[in-house]
Amino acid sequence: MNSALLVNILRFIMLLTIQIVIFNNMNFLGYISPFPYILYIILYPVNGNKAGLIFSSFLLGLTMDMFCNSGGIHATACVILAYYRPYIFKFSFGLSYEYQTIKLNDSLTPERFSFILVSVVIHHIVLFILEAFEFRFIGDILLRTLFSSIFTIITSIIIIYLIKPNKR
Amino acid sequence: MQQIFNFIIRNSNRLLFLLLLGISLALTIQSHSYHRSKVISSANFLSGGVYEKINRVNEYLNLKTENDELVLENARLKSLLFNKEDTTKLPPPDTIKGVKPADIIVSKVIHNSYNTHENFITLNSGANEGIKPDMGVINSLGIIGIIDNTSPRYSTVVSILNMRSHINAKLKKSNHFGSLTWDGKSTGFVQLEDVPRLASIRKGDTIVTGGQSVIFPEGINIGTVDKISTKANTSSYVINVKLFNDMTNLGHVYIIKSRDREELINLENKKKNE
C-alpha cells in the first residue's frame, strides 16, 4: 500500500514536470497543445482513496494554473474528472468494474481506450469552455477540444507504453 | 445530530468535490475580470524560478536572432546620435524617440504564452527593480503589453494578445485615435476599433500608441494597417493591424516607468472628486 502511494507521488511530480517543461511549449498550428498530465487521474488505482484522488487532482490542476496564469480552469477540469471517474469506469468496463482488477497501464484494449477517450474529452471540454468563458466562441471551443484531445490521447498512450512496468 | 454526522460521513467525497469545485470556479471567474488581484499567477517563487531555469536553456538557441536584433537597434541609436545637430551639448534625458521623461528598466521574458484567448508573459524582474502594476512593456520593435502583477523578483504582463487588453492607439500621420484590442484569432494581428470614418486611412499606414493613456508614452510603434472594415450601424472603422513584433518570439524587453504618471493620476482623481 505504501509503495502505491510512493508511485502516485512520483507520477504526480513527473507528469507535472514534463507537462510544464515540454508539452506546454508545444503549440501545433499556434493553439493546439496536449495535456498528458491528466494521466495522473486516469492511472490512479481503481480502488484507491477517492477523497485523496479528488484533493490531489485539485492540487495538480492548481499547480498547472499557476504555471499557465489561467486562474482556476485546470483545477476545475481536474476536480470534475476526478469526481466522475467512477462513472466513466462504469461506462467503459461495465457495472462490475470494482471486482475486476483493472490495470490501465497494460496493453490497449477497446475498453481501456474508451476510458481514456471519455476522460480526456470531458477534461478538455470543461477546460476550453472555462478558458473562453463566452458562448460566442462555441465553434472555437469545439475545434480546440477536438484537436487537443487527439494529441493528448496520442501522447498519453505513448507515455503509458513507455512507463509500462516490465514485471511479467 | 447523529444524522447530520452520518450524512457528512456518507457524502464526504461529494462534499469535498463540491468544496473544491467551488474554490476553483471562484478562481476561474475572478481571473476573467480584468481589474483583479490575481491569487494564482506565475509571478511567484516556484513557477518564476522554474521558468527562469527553462529559459536559461532556451536562450542559447535564440542567441543569434537576439544578437541580430541588438545590432539593428544599436545601428538605429547610433544614427540618432550621429545626426544630432550639436554633439557638444549633453543629450536630453529622453533619448528614445517620442518618449516623455521616463525611466527604462531592462528585463527578460522567461515565459510567454500565445495559444489561449487570454495570454500572459512572465518577466524575470519585479518589485525589487521598481516595477509596479500598470507600467507599459515594449521592446525594440513595438509594444508588448502592460504589467499585471508583481512579486519581489518576477512580474506578469497582460500581453497585447489578450482579449481583455485595451490600449489607446492612433494613426501616426494624423491624430485619429482608437482602442487596440485582440479578437483571439491570429498572433500576428490586433484590431484597432472606434476609429472615426472621417479619418483617411490607407493600407500600410503606421499605427503608434496615442498620448491619452498614462501607461505608454506617445508614439511607440505598434504595427501597420493591413485591412480596413466598417462596423455595421456605427460610424467607425475596425482596422486589422499587422504587428511589427513577432509575439511568439520575445527576448529582452523594456519597462517604461513614467515620471509623470503619479502626477497625472492625482490630477485626474482630483477632477473626478470635484
UniProtKB/TrEMBL annotation, chain A:
This protein's record includes keyword Transmembrane: yes
Transmembrane segments: 5-22, 58-84, 113-130, 142-163
Keyword set, alphabetical order: Membrane, Transmembrane, Transmembrane helix
Protein name listed in UniProt: Rod shape-determining protein MreD
UniProtKB/TrEMBL annotation, chain B:
Taxonomic lineage: Bacteria, Pseudomonadati, Bacteroidota, Flavobacteriia, Flavobacteriales
PANTHER family listed in its UniProt record: CELL SHAPE-DETERMINING PROTEIN MREC
Sequence ranges assigned to domain Rod shape-determining protein MreC beta-barrel core in this UniProt record: 109-257
Record carries keyword Phosphoprotein: no
Name the UniProt record assigns to this protein: Cell shape-determining protein MreC
A Pfam family that the UniProt record links to this protein: MreC
Family: Belongs to the MreC family.
Entry keyword annotation includes tRNA-binding: no
InterPro entries: Cell/Rod_1, Cell/Rod_MreC_2, MreC, MreC_beta-barrel_core
Top-level taxon in the UniProt lineage: Bacteria
Keywords linked to the UniProt accession: Cell shape
